[in-house]
Amino acid sequence: MEEETELPERAPVDGNSYSFRSAARSGQSTSTLVAVARTAGVDPSTVSRVLRDDPAVRVRPSTRERIIEAAAALGYVPNVNARSLVLRRTMTIGLIIPSASNVVYDQIIKGAESAARAAGYVLLLTESSDFGAVEAAYRELVLGGRVDGLLIGSGNLNDSLPDVVFERSGNCVVLNRLIRGPMPSIIEDDERGMNIAVARLVELGHTRIACLAGPADVDTATRRLAGFKEGMAEASLTVGQRYVERAAFNEGGGYEAMRRLLSLPSPPTAVAVSSVIAAVGALAACHDANVVVPDDLSMIAFHDAAIAGYLSPPLATIWMPLFELGEAATKLLVDVINGKSFASLQRVQSPEPRLIERKSLAPPPPEHNTATARATARREPAR
Amino acid sequence: MEEETELPERAPVDGNSYSFRSAARSGQSTSTLVAVARTAGVDPSTVSRVLRDDPAVRVRPSTRERIIEAAAALGYVPNVNARSLVLRRTMTIGLIIPSASNVVYDQIIKGAESAARAAGYVLLLTESSDFGAVEAAYRELVLGGRVDGLLIGSGNLNDSLPDVVFERSGNCVVLNRLIRGPMPSIIEDDERGMNIAVARLVELGHTRIACLAGPADVDTATRRLAGFKEGMAEASLTVGQRYVERAAFNEGGGYEAMRRLLSLPSPPTAVAVSSVIAAVGALAACHDANVVVPDDLSMIAFHDAAIAGYLSPPLATIWMPLFELGEAATKLLVDVINGKSFASLQRVQSPEPRLIERKSLAPPPPEHNTATARATARREPAR
DNA sequence: CTGTTAGCGCCTTCAG
DNA sequence: CTGAAGGCGCTAACAG
Fold it and tell me: Model pTM greater than 0.90?
């Protein structure tokens, strides 16, 4: 079955230096509207109208055909810059996110791309994490006329949105972030998701439930924590003294925070983790401390991802409608761009968050077992 | 320590419908070159020259200052469409990749972005996995004049590169893929990386070494497999009958392939996995089959990523210069765009691939132990 | 129904 | 050293 596609075993490297200068060197299509018009024997404006399916024109079929043929023959592709210049719109939407390699943003991107395409727009992705970059992006992209609007998925609450953006405050939608001010913003029901997680842990019989929350300056983290507390209150449970840990949304953050929770005099029997990636680290901390999930500790994480099903044990998660968030944000932005009215704040409520049950969930261990396990755990050396 | 940033406990949703139409509705800066020229009392062309630091101009300082001030006061941002139209270059590079949420492409993107910025370009990211999309992207982006060139990181060997792209064959660089034809292409030394992995396993005393390779139509997978065989040959080891598994580069692929390897009559004592993500699945398969890594089986994966350090056990990897690949590809493309000569095929050779040692590596188990473990393993139920 | 004209905002020869 | 003029490729009123 080893059908190797033929390839030099070790391809020649840095060989033969070419220096071909392609015809289309400047990167632009060589044939223009006038070229097409000439070969079709009509006026450029007619070509423009026909090629754009301008409804306000009814050329005779033979002419239309001639034009289409000429365009095809010349490989004509309209120049978007010229078009944007006169139309004053680029049919491009900018999306600025902290990091593309993130299961969360991946789904958001796909949703945004889908909605953009449906509305006739293309997406221009930019990575950057702080609002300083947002300002730069706003200038370069929106003010520079490169895009018609901007989806902003970066930045945190403590940063203030750049003045330029606020002053003009047009053509922007903030995504997955709650922002004060006139700018429309669209988020998920993070509280609801966390409610569901806590409710499940309560249902299993847990009372000593911890929350491995995200950083204090990220509002999704704050809203998830609020949902956690809400869920605990609804179950008439108190949130333990040191049962709320703030940590970065990455493996290292989850690892360290989990270590702190496990070293508590009276550690939790369940933990709701604010992010799948942090949960990977949290699981690692459990392994290192000989704490068995779910026997000693139940774990559930916010946001579902393929990897969750392949951890040890497979990790229960809360699925959130991230694709739909990307879609909704894009639709909202398109409305903004077109001057339609819109709600200043929206939550994506459907499909509903749902629990993905996996093996990391179990009833709490009998009391004495737990104490013993933890005593052992605390003596384990650090990683 | 719970410094919650103030927020409505549950913010009002879908409330007050705005319909403000911002001043900059069309998304473009309102102030133009002529506006700046008027308020500065000079000619537009002078403003243009000063603002671009045209070396062929020495205005008197006072004039220059007046211009700069006027531009700042009006918040002037040049319109890139107009500029591109006349310059015939957009200073934008398109990057087309299968999926952004991939630790591999993440690093490539960051490298490309860095090099692009350094050369005065911005990156336009597009996600799509097949060459059909590449064709569409080439038309829309390159021929449409939206970008000056295209970095192509998608597609596989069995697809043929679209005719348009081949005919024009300008302003494109293929990245992480080996392509026949005139188009420049830049890759990593995948063979070398795999050599290192095999060498380490051999050094530990393994002889029954398997390769969990990627799909046959992806050339990186094929090159890694070639490196595997090369490494085995160098150690005078034979590659076992069924010791080469082809699987998708994802968790599920790794899981299934590993299951097949473990169910072999005489299973391997070590496995080199072609991708970290597949390795996550492979590890899960081991857990499910009660095969202990590294006691029963050593594992090493191609490409390093943060998550590798937080798996159970932490997974040894081969680090590859992916950031540098992105950088190099971008520099190459910039050369192509500028008509400079370039090598048709390049390999990124520095920094060198290196082994990241982690706990998934150990000497092979004593012979009889292994047999027993495997007999047990085969009786385990499927996940 | 089709051609004519006038720009969109900017850069770049040219004169002055 | 600065202003004037033309045009990049396209679309959108206008005429005809």
Answer: no
From chain A, the residues in CB contact with B99 under 8 A are 106
Closest CA to A103 of B282, B284, B251: B251
**Separation CA B226–CA A333 (nearest Å):** 49
B44 CB inside 7 Å of strand C: yes
A351 preceded by a cis bond (ω within 30 of 0)? yes
Q: Does A171 touch chain B (CB under 8 A)?
A: yes
A chain contacts of residue B16, beta-carbon cutoff 8 Å: 343-344
Measured on CA atoms in the order A321, A326, A327, A331, is the torsion positive or negative?
Answer: positive
CA separation for the pair B138, A80 (Å, rounded): 13
Residue type, A292: V
On whether any CB of chain A is under 8 Å from the CB of B22, the answer is yes
Instruction: Indicate if CB(B345) is under 7 A from strand C.
Output: no
Which B residues in the span 305-344 are in contact with A, Cβ-Cβ below 8 Å? 306-307, 309-312, 314, 337, 339-344
Among B323, B383, B353, which residue's Cα sits nearest to residue A314?
B383
Residue B215 contacts A where some CB pair is shorter than 8 Å: no
Tokens of A302: 């916010």
What type of residue sits at position A156?
N
Give the residue ranges of DSSP H helices in A119-176. 131-137, 163-168
Residue pLDDT tens, chain B, 383 long: 333 333 333 444 443 333 333 333 344 557 888 888 888 888 888 888 888 888 777 778 888 888 998 898 888 889 999 999 888 889 999 998 887 778 888 899 999 999 999 998 988 888 775 556 777 888 888 888 999 999 988 766 445 666 666 666 678 899 988 877 778 889 999 999 999 999 999 999 999 999 999 999 888 999 999 999 999 999 999 999 899 999 999 999 999 999 999 999 999 999 999 999 999 999 999 999 999 999 999 999 999 999 999 999 999 999 999 999 999 999 999 998 888 877 777 889 889 999 999 999 999 998 744 444 444 444 344 44
Residue B133 burial (CB < 10 Å; 0-12/13-18/19+)?
middle
Q: Which residue of B has its CA nearest to A221?
A: B4
With an 8 Å Cβ cutoff, are B124 and A127 in contact? no
> Chain B residue with minimal CA distance to A288?
B312
Question: Does the CB of A58 sit below 7 A from strand C?
Answer: yes
User: CB-based burial of residue A334 (10 Å sphere; 0-12 exposed, 13-18 middle, 19+ buried)?
Assistant: buried
Is the Cα dihedral A50, A53, A55, A61 positive or negative?
positive
